[in-house]
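testing teh design pipeline on a random one, pls ignore if ur not involved
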């Protein structure tokens, strides 16, 4: 049965703003407190989705979180009317208010880890929402993420949904941003690569010194167990602590894979040769392309600044592959030269397509951050909520929805505006009807 990989992109939420909340994320920190444009951010994301759909790719849509998160503010001691809660938080804990307004769920690479039915012992597609314990503003997401995933992948005969891992840093899990899958065809049994930053129970092991390692080995192992994966088709590899300390907060900032291609930086991993040896041993087939980008060609700093590896590698209808890259790659002379050469190197990657996703890039996420990859057989795709699968009509509806509900500009002071809360809830309530999600948000219950 034919299988394909569908990208489910996250819609940017109405409170998209630059708060510099993510320690270790250079772009997030450097653009803190800039004025944002939620409308432009959402439209840029939709334009990328539509472009991939027009290329013949399977493309889905995931709803954003409810923000501002009044439930969390009340849980932390603020009381009274909604307007009073916002005013109190802004006066006494502006950082907390900022965190509870974060729209970072737009980066659905962090939403969950997904394993296709070809890899799971029970023959189901498995989902585990990421707990995102390392950052408070992201730790607010897992419950609603789980609700949204269940509403999109809503057939229990086909899809298996797990509760996110324990809310403790020992099991810090950042989802697909530290996970990739290699295979020959999407419906073949593949090799799942779990990249981790540290060992939770052994501090004598290597770990970064400046910035946090957000993913633990133990979390990755737990997800593999939940998804009923075969140990002979799983590889665990540690991310190089030195690159984490240079701003590589997730593995997808330094490596990316698709089918039989692994595209990675020379400094991405610890014990690279050992890792590649195990990968080749467990990969089915001889045609595995491990493309290493040397530091002499692209420095780690250039990779971080341009998000060269936070690009999407997609398989086109003719079987060749293309890289979906941000304009930052085009504008960097060294990175552009490397990509120009890459398409001539005889690998499956034959083309590079550049997209403007600047609103996302400024907050620390490139094209690959904006999507969750789900390999599905045709029968499984037919079981997906059809209202969440992009087509020309849905694209037009969502563009109109953004134009109707989103602000052109948003500053920190705007977060205290009670009308922003009303606008956001009104928009999300309408969106759940467009996507036929039911009541996935607390305010709807």
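output:
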């Amino acid at each position: 049965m034919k299988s394909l990989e569908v990208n489910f992109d996250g819609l940017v939420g109405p409170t998209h703003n630059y708060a510099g909340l993510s320690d270790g994320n250079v772009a997030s920190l450097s653009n803190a407190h800039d004025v944002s444009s939620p409308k432009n951010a959402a439209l840029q994301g939709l334009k990328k989705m539509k472009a991939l759909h027009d290329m013949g790719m399977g493309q889905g849509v995931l709803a954003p979180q409810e923000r501002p998160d009044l439930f969390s503010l009340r849980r932390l001691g603020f009381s009274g009317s909604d307007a009073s809660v916002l005013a109190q938080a802004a006066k006494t804990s502006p950082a907390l208010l900022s965190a509870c307004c974060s729209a970072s769920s737009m980066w659905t690479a962090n939403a969950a880890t997904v394993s296709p039915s070809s890899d799971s012992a029970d023959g189901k597609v498995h989902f585990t929402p990421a707990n995102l314990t390392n950052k408070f503003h992201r730790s607010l997401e897992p419950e609603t993420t789980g609700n949204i995933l269940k509403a999109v992948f809503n057939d229990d005969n086909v899809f298996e949904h797990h509760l996110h891992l324990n809310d403790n840093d020992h099991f810090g899990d950042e989802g697909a941003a530290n996970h990739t899958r290699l295979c020959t065809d999407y419906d073949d049994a593949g090799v799942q690569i779990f990249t981790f930053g540290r060992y939770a129970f052994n501090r004598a092991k290597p770990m970064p010194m400046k910035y946090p390692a957000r993913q633990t080995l133990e979390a990755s192992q737990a997800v593999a167990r939940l998804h009923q994966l075969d140990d002979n088709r799983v590889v665990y590899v540690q991310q190089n602590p030195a690159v984490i300390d240079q701003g590589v907060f997730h593995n997808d900032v330094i490596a990316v894979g698709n089918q039989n291609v692994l595209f990675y930086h020379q400094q991405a991993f610890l014990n690279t040769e050992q890792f590649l040896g195990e990968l080749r041993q467990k990969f089915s087939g001889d045609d595995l392309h491990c493309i290493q980008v040397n530091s002499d060609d692209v420095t780690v700093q250039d990779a971080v600044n341009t998000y060269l590896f936070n690009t999407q590698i997609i398989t086109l209808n003719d079987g060749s592959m293309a890289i979906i890259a941000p304009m930052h790659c085009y504008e960097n002379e060294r990175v552009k030269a490397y990509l120009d050469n890459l398409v001539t190197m005889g690998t499956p990657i034959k083309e590079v397509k550049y997209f403007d996703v600047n609103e996302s890039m400024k907050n620390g996420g490139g094209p690959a951050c904006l999507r969750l990859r789900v390999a599905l057989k045709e029968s499984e795709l037919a079981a997906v909520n059809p209202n969440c699968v992009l087509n020309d009509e849905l694209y037009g509806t969502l563009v109109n929805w953004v134009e109707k509900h989103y602000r052109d500009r948003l500053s920190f002071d705007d977060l205290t505006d009670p009308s922003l809360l009303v606008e956001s809830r009104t928009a999300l309530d309408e969106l759940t009807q467009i996507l036929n999600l039911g009541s996935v948000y607390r305010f709807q219950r």
